[in-house]
Amino acid sequence: MVVPVHGKSTIVNLIPRFYDVTEGELIIDGVNIQDVPQKELRKRIGFVPQKGILFSGTIESNIKYGNLDMTDEQMKKATNIAQATDFINRKDNQFKSEIAQGGNNVSGGQKQRLSIARALAIDPEIIVFDDSFSALDFKTDSILREELNKQTKGKTVIIVAQRISTILNADQIIVLEEGKIVGKGTHKELIENCEEYKEIAMSQLSKQELGGVN
User: Fold this and answer.
1) How far is 179 from 6, CA to CA, in rounded Å?
2) Dihedral through CA 148, CA 151, CA 152, CA 153, nearest 10?
3) Which pTM value belongs to this model?
4) Which residues of 171-184 are buried (b: 16+ CB within 10 A; e: fewer)?
């Protein structure tokens, strides 16, 4: 999981091969991703961009976009995790409600939750969130991450975040500065050993969240 600094989106965009590495190689489960057919690779990855992208159609067609044979149960499970169920159920036509091109008839937070639901609905092995929680309020962000932790056991979850609170409990946090790794470890380890991380953390977190750092 990655904290905010230059180069973060560049790195995560390499994973689904939106573009390829110019040096070295990117390996998943011991296999160079350039040796995997792009269609097969993208079936294994759920990618949520920084700005939610929706298509004209219905809520249902947007969520089932990656797998048209998806069951309604799978769709609803994904919207529950993404904290989208409540606002969907308040709509007259619920999952059959129309979505304008670009999602212009839903709020930024709703658009992002539907984008997250679409990525989760295909049940991918790897889920990438490219600063995807910034449009969410803190409460929704917290509940969504709690549900993600419950539902993604055995999966790889990569999060780019502006808020350190979003990645506070990550197994590993990577800190970038000007495209270079300047720190790697847990929150506690980075607070003790990475000045760049500590500086960001102290500007955002409470003393309790910081773990008693002075």
Assistant:
1) 5
2) 130
3) 0.82
4) eebbbbeeeeebbe
